[in-house]
From TrEMBL:
Residues 1-117 are annotated as: Disordered. Keywords: DNA damage, DNA repair, Hydrolase. One of its GO terms (biological process) is base-excision repair, AP site formation. The lineage of its organism: Eukaryota, Fungi, Dikarya, Ascomycota, Pezizomycotina. GO terms for molecular function: pyrimidine-specific mismatch base pair DNA N-glycosylase activity; uracil DNA N-glycosylase activity. Residues 15-33 have a biased composition (Acidic residues). It comes from the Eukaryota. SUPFAM superfamilies: Uracil-DNA glycosylase-like. This is DNA glycosylase.
């Protein structure tokens, strides 16, 4: 047999031997890898090939060693191919986790960050808008004190005029205006018809309360106290916790502590109380509700209705005790 023919037969048998070690999925199976077995018939097959020599009548047999097939340890979770690594890079920690046979931790979804508010805006920005006038009178049952007018309110010139604001619907459902839901244009009739009033701790309008400074809020407390001492209402309702926080800080020279606040009546506290002397005014009761702005969605409708109902029940009780109706009877010819 020629040397070329011998080499071709050897290559062919090596290929057949490698096929015996392949599993169905194209890799090496675990059992075959743990207990490797040499080709059982390779030595027998190769022994039939012999070289003839002219110097001897006997035909010597040369046995070739079995071919060594190099196999690397299969990895349960190999790293992705080079084609995949182009789009995703693995950190050293992820690579170690993958090689250890553990699944890589899922990548955290990137949360959309809310755009941060710009913060304080100077009065010059909205100087073209007029301040909102107060609707106050003497001896009212309750005065509602908001934070400051919004842009829609300032442009129209009436309280809580933004359609998304819940002030007027809650005023009606609570019983403070039991006969109807008033439009913002009727804010000027609150004292005359219902013994109610409205003002704000800060006069200038802004897009929202975040555009005000803390100094403005604290400075507005003194003006509120002066108005309440002049008109002497029975109670005030702070529409927004920010108002009460500013009042509390001025009165106590510190902020509210954790667990020191609850919505509704602030028992044992009076607002705008005069210095104790003979005939001094004892101040007005305090009720606190969340802001009615449409931008405030931290409290559900049911919570707001129930909270406002407590105030409305007290207002109606005081009307009966004062002998008033709601709305009060007014002269004929009034456009309202």
């Amino acid at each position: 047999m020629s040397k070329r023919k011998y080499a071709d037969e050897t290559i062919k048998m090596e290929e057949e031997t490698e096929e015996e070690y392949e599993s169905e999925d194209g890799g090496f199976s675990d059992d075959e890898y743990q207990t490797p077995k040499p080709p059982p018939s390779f030595g027998g097959l190769i022994s039939k090939f012999a070289f003839s020599s002219s110097s001897s009548s006997k035909t010597p047999t040369i046995t070739l060693p079995a071919p060594i097939i190099s196999r690397s340890t299969p990895c349960e979770n190999p790293l992705p191919s080079s084609r995949n690594t182009r789009s995703k890079k693995f950190s050293p920690a992820e690579a170690e986790t993958s090689l250890a046979g553990e699944p890589s931790p899922p990548s955290a979804k990137t949360k959309k960050k809310r755009a941060k508010h710009g913060g304080y805006v100077p009065p010059s920005v909205y100087a073209h808008l007029s301040p909102l006038p107060d609707t106050l009178d003497d001896n009212l049952i309750c005065v509602f004190i908001g934070i400051n007018p919004g842009l829609k309110t300032a442009s129209i010139g009436h309280s809580f005029a933004n359609p998304t604001n819940l002030f007027w619907p809650l005023l009606y459902s609570s019983g403070c205006t039991p006969d109807r839901r008033l439009p913002p244009q009727m804010d000027v009739m609150l004292p005359e018809l219902y013994s109610l009033g409205q003002t704000n701790i800060v006069k200038r309008p802004t897009k929202d309360a975040a555009e005000l400074s803390k100094e403005e809020m604290l400075a507005g407390v003194a003006g509120l106290e002066e108005k309440m001492r002049w008109h002497k209402p029975e109670a005030v309702c702070f529409v927004g916790k920010m108002v009460w926080e500013a009042v509390f800080k001025v009165q106590n020279r510190r902020g509210l502590r954790k667990g020191e606040f609850e919505w509704g009546w602030q028992e044992g506290v009076r607002f705008a109380k005069e210095a104790e002397k003979e005939g001094s005014w004892g101040g007005c009761r305090i009720f606190v509700v969340p802001s009615t702005s449409g931008l405030v969605a931290a409290y559900g409708p049911e919570f707001k209705r129930n909270l406002w109902k407590k105030l409305g029940d007290w207002v109606q009780m005081r009307r009966q005790e004062r002998g008033e109706s709601a709305p009060k009877i007014i002269e004929e010819g009034c456009p309202w």
